[in-house]
Each structure stands twice: as structure tokens, then as C-alpha cells.
Design a protein that fits this description.
Radius of gyration: 20 Å
Shape: globular
Largest sheet: 2 strands, antiparallel
CATH architecture: Orthogonal Bundle
CATH superfamily: Jann2411-like domain
Oligomer: single chain
Strand content: 5-15%
Distance between the termini: 57 Å
Number of strands: 6
Number of domains: 1
Structural class: alpha+beta
Mean pLDDT: 77
Helix content: 40-55%
Low-confidence stretches: 1-19, 191-203
CATH topology: Jann2411-like fold
Number of helices: 7
Strand order of the largest sheet: 1-2
CATH class: Mainly Alpha
């Protein structure tokens, strides 16, 4: 089953509009993550994808079963995740993103959610309709914050953890904008310890 990444609960919206925060998009990217250099993929089935999307507020309650029956949901989720990862990696490195990755993201954005007014017992409210199937609509919601940040935010703060055995993708929201590690308590401390050992070795001279 697809498991949620360790990020704040604020990324799990429950209202009707399916808002997705930037960290929520990075959560999705990091469902493929590395522990001591070993890859772990949290996406293992169509049902797992639907469960993760529902848990993160991107599917209406009760539609998880419907989404799980969508053909190739697992494959589509992995394709979009790979394209998002490629976009973040290229941006963090100051490189040009792969055209195929951009085409994949453009295709899923066409399944966006369109806002519209809805008349209810208490008057008008803002609602929406889906232009694609539930999985594609949810994936479009995940792509949106990354695209918006590229267009009008601070994409220069897209980061990849400097620990080569981690490579966690994240947005640097620190005041200085100089964060290098996904977590100073883990990867940052490992790097500090490695530098300390290297300095200690350099001080040792043969007798």
C-alpha cells in the first residue's frame, strides 16, 4: 500500500475544492525514496494509488474503489511521478528539463478540475467538475503546485538532498535559502560526522 511521506497534516485537505500545497506535491514525488542508497517504492498497486490520493484529499470520499478500477492507474501515477522528479532535478541543477517529461505533465494537466458555481440549500457555493477520470484529475492536482511555483514562485529553491544515498526532493523554505539537506538531524549530521572523520584521518601521519 502507498504510504504517506513524513510531512505536515496540512497537506491533507478535506474540503470540497481539493487544494494541494507544494509540500503535498513533493510528498508524492518522494513516494519513491532511498534509504542508505536502496530504493523503496511506496506505489505498488492501482488500489494503493487510490488509497494514497484519497488519504491526501485528492479524491472524493467513496471514490477510491472507482479510481482503483481505472486502467493503468499505477503506471500513470509512476509516469507522472517520474516526470515531476525529472522537472525538480533539472530545476535544482539549473538544467533544461527533458522534453518528454514536460509533455507528460502537460498531458495530465489537461485533466484538470474546472471551477463552477453550484446552487445549494444555503445559496451559491464554489464547486468544480473533473475533465478526466478520478486518477488523472488527482494527478493534475499534484502537478499544479510545481508548475505554479515554476511560473510565479521561487523555483530556485527546489532542492535535492545533498546526501547521495538519500536524494530526497524538497522545497527550501528556510530564511536564507541555503538549505542542503532534507533533514539536518539525519542527513546533515551524517555529513558533519563524515567531514569530522576525514579531518581526523588527515591529521594522522605515518610513523
Amino acid at each position: 500500500m502507498l504510504t504517506a511521506s513524513p510531512r505536515p497534516d496540512a497537506n491533507h485537505p478535506a474540503d470540497h475544492g481539493h487544494p494541494v500545497l507544494l509540500d503535498g506535491a513533493f510528498d508524492f514525488i518522494n513516494t519513491l525514496h532511498f534509504d542508505d542508497g536502496q530504493a523503496t517504492d511506496d506505489i505498488t498497486s492501482d488500489e494503493g494509488v487510490a488509497d494514497w490520493l484519497a488519504t491526501h484529499g485528492m479524491l472524493h470520499e467513496g471514490t477510491g474503489g472507482e479510481a482503483a478500477r481505472c486502467p493503468d492507474g499505477l503506471e500513470r501515477a509512476r509516469q507522472v511521478r517520474s516526470a515531476l522528479r525529472g522537472l525538480v532535478d533539472a530545476t535544482a541543477a539549473g538544467a533544461t528539463p527533458d522534453e518528454a517529461a514536460v509533455a507528460t505533465l502537460n498531458a495530465v494537466l489537461r485533466s484538470r478540475i474546472v471551477p463552477e458555481l453550484e446552487v445549494g440549500p444555503d445559496g451559491l457555493r464554489m464547486s468544480h467538475r473533473h475533465l478526466g477520470d478520478p486518477v488523472d484529475g488527482a494527478l493534475a492536482l499534484l502537478v499544479g503546485p510545481i508548475v505554479e511555483e515554476l511560473a510565479s514562485g521561487r523555483p530556485e529553491r527546489f532542492r535535492v538532498c545533498a546526501n547521495d544515498e538519500c536524494r530526497w526532493a524538497f522545497f527550501d523554505s528556510s530564511p536564507t535559502g541555503r538549505r542542503r539537506w532534507c533533514d539536518m538531524r539525519s542527513c546533515g549530521n551524517r555529513a558533519k560526522a563524515a567531514r569530522h572523520r576525514a579531518r581526523a584521518r588527515s591529521r594522522v601521519r605515518p610513523a
